[in-house]
Amino acid sequence: MQDALVPIFVVGILFLGLPWLIFHYVTQWKKNGGLTAEDEKLLDDMHVLARRLDERIATLERILDNQEPGWRPRQAAERSTEEDWRREN
Q: Same domain, yes or no, for 30 and 61?
């Protein structure tokens, strides 16, 4: 009797239990997959802040380039090499 119940139980789990569990979580992921309005607003605010910070950094770099041209040694060396190449050609 017990030998017959184990295969029935295993088959029931494999063909009923696991598909139900998988479909249950798939529907949950689909239902909760999108962004909420609050998340979208927060994302937009962060995007605006990132653009403002990028503009500030660009402004500071322009100011430093005008006041102290050698503050970026690697880029200054690249510029001088490029200027030398232009003079030769």
A: no
